[in-house]
Design a protein that fits this description.
Elements lengths: L7 H13 L4 H78 L7 E5 L4 E6 H4 L9 H14 L5 E7 L13 H18 L7 E5 L12 H7 L1 E7 L13
Parallel strand pairs: 3-4
Antiparallel strand pairs: 1-2, 2-5, 3-5
Helix pairs in contact: 4-5
């Protein structure tokens, strides 16, 4: 503790007051030291209070920032839920319309199924292609033309998928089933475009034999797996993000 000296005049007054009150000089010094300790303790308490007030303001600022983050997250979650609901509604509407429109294609060997991804139009490769080939044969061209007549009037997106069985390529000249499945999907896409389907709404994918719909252990199963599918996906235009968000 630092030494503290009273001015001589003040000390004289204190001594006179203390003596008049019956205090000895030693007791007066003790009282002076106690007063100094109390003063220093009060100053320390004031400093602690200032620190606590500053800390409280800092915590309030952090809480306010976190509240903003939570509010943004809730707004984003609401937006995505609205988009999901719109997609579900569009999917249900699409399935009702499209199944009705392409029902007549079933007689040509086309399957129409509703999946979690969307409405699927499945055409067997035996209708579309000769074995090991990717060029559409006359029957395939006629079938794709009928499908195009239905698709070109819509505004959906169309994913044309090529699928094969698991038999290795031997004499057809293709590198592998990946190449064959993609080439067959491309042939169907090109024919759809030629028959009026907007190419901006189409894209293709080749899946080789990795998405079978039947067992490849039987001849009938392998025949079912050799196919081209057209996935009809509703095209949604999301709401614009609020200003200042990413």
């Amino acid at each position: 503790m630092r030494a503290y000296r009273l001015p001589v005049s003040v000390l004289a007054v204190v001594l006179l007051f203390g003596l008049s009150a019956g205090c000895t000089p030693r007791e007066l010094v003790k009282l002076e030291n106690q007063n100094l300790e109390l003063t220093e303790a009060l100053d320390a308490a004031k400093q602690d209070l200032r620190v606590s007030v500053a800390g409280k303001k800092g915590l309030e600022s952090q809480l306010a920032q976190k509240d903003q983050v939570v509010a943004k997250a809730r707004a984003d979650a609401k937006r995505w839920q609205e988009m999901y609901n719109a997609a579900e509604q569009a999917r249900r509407t699409l399935s009702t319309q499209r199944v009705r429109e392409i029902e007549e294609l079933r007689e040509s060997g086309v399957r129409v199924t509703q999946t979690i991804d969307g409405l699927r139009v499945e055409i067997g490769s035996d209708i579309l292609f000769d074995p090991g080939k990717a060029a559409l044969k006359p029957e395939g061209l006629a079938t794709v033309k009928k499908v195009a007549a239905v698709l070109k009037g819509g505004q959906e997106l169309y994913r044309i998928e090529g699928h094969t069985d698991n038999q290795p390529i031997k004499v057809s000249g293709w590198k592998d089933n990946w190449e064959l499945s993609a080439a067959r999907a491309h042939s169907v896409l090109a024919s759809l475009e030629k028959n009026g389907v907007d190419p901006k709404r189409m894209y293709l994918a080749g899946f080789s034999f990795y998405k079978p719909v039947a067992s490849n252990d039987t001849s009938a199963g392998r025949q079912r797996n050799r196919r081209v599918e057209i996935l009809i996906v509703p095209r949604l235009v999301p709401k614009p993000m609020p200003a200042g968000t990413k």
